[in-house]
Amino acid sequence: MISALFFRKRKRKRKRKRWREFLGLLKALRSRWPGEKLYVVLDNFSPHKHPNVRAWAAANEVELVFLPTYG
Q1: Are 46 and 53 in contact, with CB atoms under 8 Å apart?
Q2: What is the block-wise mean pLDDT of the chain (71 residues), using blocks of 10 residues?
């Protein structure tokens, strides 16, 4: 019970990892290297495959390269 109360009062220390944050990273990379085609190697984390991320990448010359799944 005490640990449940502690967990409830504790603030989230880790930032969220959603598609919006990932898209922000891609935009930062694009602004750092404008006019060049970018290749970004990714794992199969679901925010990397979000339709908005894929659409933005296709429109801005960013190639998303996914690692194969093993198992």
Answers
A1: no
A2: 50 73 95 94 93 97 92 61
